[in-house]
Amino acid sequence: MLFNSLHFIFFFPVVVLLYFSIPQRWRWVLLLLASYYFYTRWKVNYAILLVTSTIVDYTAGMLMVRFPKKGIGRKCLLTSSLVANLGMLFTFKYYNFVSANLQELCDRFDTIYHVPQLDILLPLGISFYTFQTINYTIDVYRGHIEPEKHLGRFAVYVAFFPQLVAGPIERASHLIPQFLQDHRFNYQRLVDGFRIMLWGFFLKVVVADRLAVYVDNVYSAPHQYHGAPLLLATYFFAFQIYADFAGYSAIAIGSAKIMGFDLMENFRYPYLAASVSEFWKRWHISLSTWFRDYVYIPMGGNRVSKSRWIYNIMVLFLISGVWHGANWTFLVWGAIHGVYLITYLRTKRLQVKILRIIGIENKPRFKKILAVFLTFHLVLVAWIFFRANSIEDAGTILSNMVSGLPYDIYRFLNMDLNGIYEDSLMFVNITGFEFCLSITLILFVMMHDILRGALCLHQKLGRNTRYYFRMAYYDVLIIALILFGVYGQKQFIYFQF
After folding, report:
1. How far apart are CA 296 and CA 418, in angstroms?
2. Which residues contact 477 (CB under 8 A, 6 or more apart)?
3. Who's near 167: CB < 8 A, 6+ residues apart?
4. CA distances from 453 to 158, 269, 439 (A)
């Protein structure tokens, strides 16, 4: 089931009404049934994987308490859990990719290779709920949490429908205790949750799905474009993926909040980051902290030699890239961010010298603006590989963008704006109005993040002014949803991961 579907519009109020109408001790049953119904609306058969992951990790957690901490028994149970979960993830997500590349390698060396491809679909949310169950098993193994004895509540933790398909990836220590709480209906919580959901729907239905039209057309045939169209499509994608994924997270957080659950923040105005390091503290926070706690720190983190630290960073980002998809483009995307972070952290003295040379070392506001501008554009270059269908397409986009830009800049300096505008729409199936609307929506999202994330404007306004400002703001969102929403039930980008 998609959040941006008519089905969900009817499904969610019914679940909320029933949730607050039944005794607290039976609510886990409702949430479990609702979550499995939510998931099986896509494909019933793949619920078996969800059940398997649940039973494997529940059993592993319950058996671990019978063995000494970090003893051989616990290690065997942890290994079994990891093999089962990662084995399912590999089979459904990476098997065909690995097999196809092995086939290509063997063909080049005239070696016989007969391992067949599997005719399977990637199960929705498998990367998210697999990581969620893995962090539970690891935390029980480490002794950080006690195993959950109630199989039903543990099953709800794995399948909780607001965040089942695309996160946030919740820690058991944070979410499972909330299923024991007797949540009472609260009007203010209902209003706050609805407001968060409204912003999420706006980001997805109005912003992301509208930008997707331009991006999909350009990136599906990058060889047809040069200069400005490729650059615009890349800018558009940066905001498309942000609006799409942040929109999903907002709907998940808002819907959970209405029922009394607190999900972790997943985005914190990432395009206001002043460094790549800060970007990863603001973007997909639940995943970046997961990799930090369960991959980076166990490898030694930064408490190792310089060469080992560089190795840890690169492995971390390569794994992060592969997690996003079975394609070389994602591996390159992760490698680029690894190089970015290592370069940033290893050249801090050089950065200070450069700031001193250009005369802005003691101008913190200008320095922050410059840092945000540079960070955003570094991230933008990496997004090309993330979105491109292949490494070859990414290379075509970069080369055609660079080769075509000088001519577009020449025309811009000669005020041939209409010509550049017309070229930007060439071969792209959108109207001039839709193009201008897309630009306006990007500016609106940027201003929203700047005002709320940087200046905290809502805290500086008077009480009455703040009330009218808030009402006008949400009225704009509702009107935009009605007039400019794209209601084709386009799935969220992160569903493919």
Report:
1. 50
2. 198, 199, 202
3. 128, 249, 252, 266, 284, 286, 287, 494
4. 32, 6, 21
pLDDT tens for each residue of 357-372: 888 777 888 888 999 9
Quote the CA–CA distance of 47 and 77 in Å, as a whole number: 23
Q: What is the mean pLDDT of residues 367-396?
A: 94
324 annotated active-site: yes
Question: Burial code of 37-65, b = ≥16 C-beta within 10 A, e = fewer?
Answer: ebbeebeeebbebbeebbebbbebbbbbe
The answer, yes or no, to whether residue 63 has pLDDT greater than 90, is yes
409-433 burial code (b ≥16 CB/10 A, e <16): eebeeeeeeeebeebbbeebeeeee
On average, the pLDDT of the chain sits at 87
> What is the pLDDT, as a whole number, of residue 495?
62
Residue written as tokens 């169209």? 229
Give this prediction's pTM: 0.90
Structural tokens at position 87? 């084995």
- Of these residues, 114, 150, 284, 324, which one is catalytic? 324
Where b means 16+ CB within 10 Å and e means fewer, 365-386 reads: eeeeeebbeebbebbeebbbbb
- What is the per-residue pLDDT across 108-122, written as a single tens digit (0 to 9) for each? 877 777 777 887 888
CA-based nearest residue to 397, from 226, 237, 239, 240: 226
